[in-house]
């Protein structure tokens, strides 16, 4: 009886895991088909056209140029945001001041505001400030942080033992030093969650770059979304486009695989569960 | 004499010190918050107000200095009579009521499976989660390859089962395709959050229930579910807001070549956001687009407020006692 339950359990996990992984495997197989062939042909293409990856890398545009753009945008939008979010999270958790609760509710409220309503006027302001076609908006997004991450850090810091800051206060540490020397170095778990979530999000970002940047500055998301075409532009080279999309997927997946233990532990310890 | 003087001095000094300390705290608080406050003002507050002002005007990209006019509620009246706008709102609502329950059931189901004491937990967890970090552009191309009319995986499976092996998913079943993509790519994070919630339920509760003769279904209904209601509420609200804001996926899933801002998105996949953006960047009708966006804000606010209010009837309140 016990054995039967266990067998069912493992069968279920196996089937579900397969359902979740098959799309990626299918994408990979399809990236190895003959480039004009679409996705037809045998399930596992024979021979495998590995040269699709070479074409994706340099056949239509210099992949490395847009890869660099992606790295720069991800960096300037993610790194400052994680730090300023941690700072704000500390303030909401540890500093008593008038207006704290009001701003906390306002902060959570911003996550409910749909993209379209702020983007149009924002777009207009960006144009007026001559920041259209530049990377400045990414730095602005980076500096202003992310409400979701602020919430994450606040939850984490609120459950932080206070004896440490009492000791720090005795030593005459202000909030900034307490934060930098005690809280930040002990924030491994939420920092990993924050970097993974925000970093992979910005890495794959599509629409803002598409609307605000010229081709020269585009990250890989919108660049690959344009697709790869045959010499006469008449058909999309689906296998090559998939090859490019998978190359683009490698860095965030690697980052996740390296950090995944910490990510799960981070979600448990930050008390994100509501 | 000395014994009288000391407290006098102390009471004279203390309030001053406390006041300056409070001022320092306030200063520190707003100092720490200033990067976010800057963004809150520049990226949220000002655009919101400007957006509302735009919605009361006939602003286009070119008439700012020529014949910009205040038009009152004209844009809102126009929206009220705009069938396409109502259709896009209906499609958004349909998306919300389908994907959110699917998400929650999948996330909770996967989390419970992972919490049942299976081996290689890390491996399964990784396989279920990995789709989350795949960039949306790659997700869309992968699903285009799966739903491809000629030789896509889905049609191959349907064909093998004796069904229609030539279905045009991207055009005729665009919403189903979109939902499959969202379910695949959006379940992982919630699964981890549910898993954390499940780990927070003390094992003793289950043991006591087992001793009392409660079977697995009974234990799920009487222990797991009630204690997870705060997590379910969290996932429900985030899911609803996320589903309401679905925007990039339908554009990237549109059949044919990528052109402009989703001009080739099938009607059924034109969500509220896409409809508003099309009016703005497609038609250059800033005023009307802003009015539609504001109607959308009101819609989301009403929905989330109703969900929050409903919580008092079903969210288990004593979570502090059992949480973590």
Structure write-up:
The complex is a heterodimer of chains A (274) and B (324). Chain A is mostly helical and 274 residues long. Chain A is built from 13 helices and no strands. Chain A has one domain: MetI-like (MetI-like fold, Orthogonal Bundle), CATH 1.10.3720. The longest helix of chain B has 54 residues, at 2-55. In chain B, 40% of the residues are buried. In chain B, helix 11 packs antiparallel against helix 14 (286-314) and helix 13 packs antiparallel against helix 14 (286-314). At the A-B interface, helix 1, helix 3, helix 4, helix 5 and helix 6 of A face helix 1, helix 3, helix 4, helix 5 and helix 9 of B.
Alpha-beta classification of chain B: mainly alpha
What is the share of helical residues of chain B?
A: over 70%
Mean model confidence by pLDDT of chain B: 87
CATH superfamily of the largest domain in chain B: MetI-like
- Rg of chain A from C-alpha positions? 23 Å
User: How many domains comprise the coordinates of chain A?
Assistant: 1
What is the name of the CATH architecture of chain A? Answer: Orthogonal Bundle
Number of helices of chain B: 15
Q: Total number of helical segments of chain A?
A: 13
- Strand fraction of chain B: under 5%
Which CATH top level class of the largest domain in chain B fits? Mainly Alpha
Question: What ranges of chain B have pLDDT less than 50 throughout 5 or more consecutive residues?
Answer: 1-13, 319-324
Question: SSE order of chain A, as H and E?
Answer: HHHHHHHHHHHHH
Order of helices and strands of chain B: HHHHHHHHHHHHHHH
Q: What is the β-strand count of chain B?
A: 0
Biggest interface, residues from each chain: A-B, 99 and 100 residues
CATH superfamily label of chain A: MetI-like
Structural class of chain A: mainly alpha
State the distance separating the first and last CA atoms of chain B.
57 Å
Whole-number tally of structural domains of chain B: 2
């Amino acid at each position: 009886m016990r054995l039967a339950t266990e067998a069912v359990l493992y069968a279920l996990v196996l089937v579900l895991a397969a359902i979740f992984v098959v799309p990626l495997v299918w994408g990979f197989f399809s990236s190895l088909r003959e480039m004009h062939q679409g996705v037809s042909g045998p399930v596992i293409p024979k021979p495998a056209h590995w040269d699709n990856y070479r074409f994706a890398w340099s056949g239509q545009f210099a992949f490395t140029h847009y890869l660099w753009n992606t790295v720069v945008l991800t960096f300037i939008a993610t790194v400052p945001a994680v730090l300023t979010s941690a700072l704000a999270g500390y303030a909401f958790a540890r500093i008593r001041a008038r207006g704290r609760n009001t701003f906390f509710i306002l902060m959570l409220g911003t996550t409910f505001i749909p993209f379209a309503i702020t983007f149009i006027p924002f777009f207009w302001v960006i144009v007026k400030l001559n920041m259209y076609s530049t990377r400045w908006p990414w730095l602005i997004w980076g500096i202003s942080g992310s409400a979701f991450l602020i919430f994450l850090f606040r939850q984490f810091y609120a459950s932080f033992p206070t004896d440490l800051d009492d000791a720090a206060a005795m030593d005459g540490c202000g909030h900034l030093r307490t934060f930098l020397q005690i809280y930040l170095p002990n924030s491994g778990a939420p920092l990993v969650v924050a970097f993974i979530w925000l970093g992979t999000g910005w890495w794959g970002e599509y629409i803002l770059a598409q609307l605000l940047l010229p081709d020269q500055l585009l990250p890989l998301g919108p660049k690959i979304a344009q697709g790869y075409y045959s010499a006469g532009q008449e058909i999309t080279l689906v296998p090559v486009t998939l090859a490019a999309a998978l190359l683009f997927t490698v860095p965030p997946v690697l980052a996740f695989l390296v950090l995944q233990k910490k990510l799960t532990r981070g979600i448990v310890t930050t008390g994100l569960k509501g | 004499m000395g014994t009288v003087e000391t407290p006098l001095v102390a009471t004279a000094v203390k309030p001053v010190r406390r006041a300056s300390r409070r001022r320092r705290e306030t200063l520190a608080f707003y100092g720490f918050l200033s990067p976010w406050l800057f963004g809150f003002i520049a990226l949220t507050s000002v655009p919101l107000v400007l957006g509302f002002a735009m919605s009361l005007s006939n602003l286009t990209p070119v008439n700012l200095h020529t014949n910009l006019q205040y038009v009152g509620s004209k844009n809102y009246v126009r929206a009220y009579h705009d069938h396409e706008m109502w259709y896009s709102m209906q499609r958004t609502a349909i998306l919300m009521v389908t994907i959110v329950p699917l998400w929650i059931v999948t996330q909770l189901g996967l989390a419970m499976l992972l919490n049942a004491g299976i081996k290689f937990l890390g491996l399964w967890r990784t396989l279920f989660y990995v789709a989350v970090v795949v960039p949306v552009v790659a997700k869309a191309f992968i699903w285009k390859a799966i739903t491809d009319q000629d030789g896509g995986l889905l049609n191959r499976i349907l064909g093998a089962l004796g069904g229609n092996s030539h279905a045009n998913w991207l055009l005729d079943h665009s919403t189903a395709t979109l939902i499959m993509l969202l379910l695949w790519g959006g379940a992982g994070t919630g699964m981890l959050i549910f898993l954390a919630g499940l780990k927070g339920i003390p094992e003793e509760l289950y043991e006591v229930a087992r001793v009392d003769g409660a079977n697995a279904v009974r234990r799920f209904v009487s222990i797991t579910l009630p204690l997870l209601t705060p997590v379910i509420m969290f996932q429900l609200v985030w899911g609803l807001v996320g589903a309401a804001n679905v925007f990039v996926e339908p554009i990237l899933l549109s059949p044919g070549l990528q052109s402009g801002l989703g001009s080739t998105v099938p009607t059924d996949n034109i969500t509220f956001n896409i409809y508003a953006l099309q009016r703005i960047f497609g038609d250059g009708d800033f005023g009307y687009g802003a009015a539609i966006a504001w109607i959308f804000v009101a819609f989301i606010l009403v929905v989330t407020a109703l969900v929050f209010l409903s919580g008092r009837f079903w969210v288990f309140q004593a979570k502090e006692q059992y949480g973590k």
